[in-house]
Amino acid sequence: MPSISFEYTYCSLPERFYQRIEPTRFPRPQLVRWNAALGAELGIDQAHWESDDLARVFSGAVLNPGAQPVAQAYSGHQFGQFNPNLGDGRALLLGEVRDLHGKLRDVHLKGSGATQFSRAGDGRATLSAVIREYLVSEAMHALGVPTSRSLAIILTGEEVWRDRSEPGAILVRVASSHVRVGTFEHFAARNDREALQILADYVIDRHHSDLPKDREGYLGLFERILDRQARLIARWMSLGFIHGVMNTDNTFVSGETLDYGPCAFMEGFKRNAVFSSIDHAGRYAYKNQPQIAQWNLGSLAGCFLSFVPGSESETTTHLEKLLIGFLPRYTGYYQEEMAKKTLVSNSAVTERLLDLMELHQADFTQVFRELGAVVMGESPRSGFWQQPDVVLWTQEWRKQVLTPSMKPEVVRQQLDRANPLFIPRNHLVERAIRAVVDHQNWNPFEELMSVLVAPFSLSVDREELGRPAQPEEQVHETFCNT
Ligand code: AMP
Ligand code: MG
Known about the structure:
The protein is α+β, with helices and mostly antiparallel strands.
């Protein structure tokens, strides 16, 4: 059997950063999905492997000599409430792998069994939740959103009980690191300045090795983390994506998206849309996401304040200035994203379109995608474009984008490169999950994946996967279903 050379940099940190763990032995680990493209990026060629061996390695049943799997310690603000004791309760960091570009990537198993952080939980994940995360994270990647990736789905051979019995599964998740805002909060809550500095140094080594490990470097690090959040949220917003649980433990300092539980891509546009069944107050509504990111960064700033050397009052002033600048910075990135979607830099034009979409409850993804047909003077499928106020908007917009030097076909190509046809629509994700879980039928999953990996390309025989849900198919609520 070939082997994978794992590195273990996180384990070079002090013991209080993690729990060393003996992975749970599952009865019959079985590989049911392997992401060959991501595997290749990590230098793992599926052709050299027996599927059972991949299942054994990536369920933690077979470890390299000297392997050091760990469950990471972290805390976090969940819906605004601080919880000092979170941590990997059903996951472990198997090790790190250097990818083809020389970048270190975490290989993390989710659903891999109980740890000291499990509290009342069973440490397991259901196959439904794992499929959901696999589909959505890979779709996000193809849409150009920084995100954790999904390398494999492994059935554990166990049944897991939630509101009913379901197959248990492990998601093999790959990310550029798993350091969260909540990891910093963990040590700040314990007044452990030494650990905070060690953690900041680790993040610098992993993500920003050009920064010095001193006051200037730490302030620079904070700004880079903030900048990546601003870019990330701008990208989410431009796709109508609602994360659903933007807790600080679900916020990576790398600026990648993680944890696809109750997330959703909005269909009918509504600025205060909420899908998550647990978000009763709408804290994590679509339109609140920039402010929530700022809130999360505010909490991170508090952690930085307690370890950055030098004048505390100057540090406070500096961090406050960055935080105040977060929303304007975000808005700049958001407007850039939206300008790519409409090809006009006048944000009033784009906002007016969004107002009309909200008024007529038009499908977010479909409307933007149909701009390509609109610019060509074709009549797109959705009735939205026939509304008199929308017709007026269209006339104005076409005047702005169709300058004499711009051929409509060229404009269309640009629009189509920015506006996806395929997103993981809730009803399609649900259908794919049900087919696998209820009938062991992976066809809907495979069909959906085939369009999600190329979301901007027209796939004529799969066009129906690009259309919005019919009223009877609509999903209004999404569940954590951990
Ligand atoms: P999440 O909502 O997935 O971000 O998880 C929040 C916290 O709950 C983390 O500390 C998880 O490790 C823990 N957790 C979630 N589900 C389980 C489970 N089934 N067993 C043990 N811990 C869990
Ligand atoms: Mg989480």
